[in-house]
Amino acid sequence: MSPRVFELPDLGEGLTEAVLVRWLVRAGDAVAVDEPVAEVETAKAMVEVPSPFGGVVARLHGEEGATLQVGSPLISVDAVRSAVETYAEEERAGSGNVLIGYGTSGASTSRRRRRGVPRSAVRSPARNGERPAVQSPIVRRLARDNGVDLQALTGTGPDGLITRRDVEAAAAPVAVVSDVDQRTGLPIRTRVPLTGLRKAVTATLTRSRTEIPEATTWVDVDATALLELRAELKESGAAPGILAMIARFVVAGLARFPELNSRVDTGRGEITHLDGVNLGIAAQTGRGLVVPAIKDAHRLSMRGLDAEIRRLTAAAREGTATAAELGSGSFTLNNYGVLGVDGSAAIINHPEVAILGMGRILPRPWVVGGDIVVRHIVQLSLVFDHRVCDGGTAGGFLRFVADCVEAPASAMADL
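^ Dihydrolipoamide acetyltransferase component of pyruvate dehydrogenase complex, sequence as received from the core. Prediction below:
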């Protein structure tokens, strides 16, 4: 039988290309239906691509680091009659010819061995001088970020599995290359191509700076009562995080100042106010800054927001957040305090029209009733698109959120 060619599937969300980050199989490997064969990075997320059929890999189309177009050949598979083929025939109807993370129902993001398929049918064992299977996406990403060739490593884990410690031990400073920067005359240490997520972030931020006439306003807020309220809630059980509590105030503020939860349609010459809030939460990851969004955040309580914030930030850092989660925000909340800074004038996440940032909460001298006392202070800063509102609206929203932080029990009674 002639090899079957599996083409890079539709990525969804209007995406037409992806960077081939790493092959998860080699020519000659046996693969099962829905087994991941490659790790790719789109402008939205890092995902694993599952094969829609089983057999033996005849050819890999493309080199690691190459940009592939949707519909271009990815792998060729010999459809030999084997344990894999038998299993594939049984599972054909459940095969997901889409990316993991984009809604395939018959696939799992874990690369587990399926029941009834021999281990050799899922992944051929490492032979002398060849790379053992690397199961963890974290290990693969760590190796890529540190310039470590996994094929050159000998794993110390079970059955020769390459562990994070193996990669860290092999990591070494990047060697200085011979080419020189023309302007400075300094040697160029390394070159980092703008691909995938980094390319998308660059385009978004550049467009934001180019198109949006932005302005920034900020306020120092006494968050002592907020910390005390959270401590009280913690005594009676699990308490939502500070970010979730502020997120609830932000959502309430957007209901009162809908101009900040809108879009500017330059083509139609109008401002579109949105009905409901998809709250973006900025998350710093090893691949750059991403903003997964809490869908219908206006329908959630503080505890509900807290659960979604934890889930989405973990998914963003693991590279498993879906394209819909990363591209559907209507307003962004950025906790740059986790970076150890007090304030920032952030860049609006285009095509949104505003972003609220919060710095770290620190004990500071504060005047209360004419006396100087120690209070826990946080700076909130709002960057907004001056096309959608003026300083009065922006200041009103910021003051509303600040008042909620300073008197959270009263604010929660009114929400």
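DSSP finds eleven helices and 19 strands in the chain.
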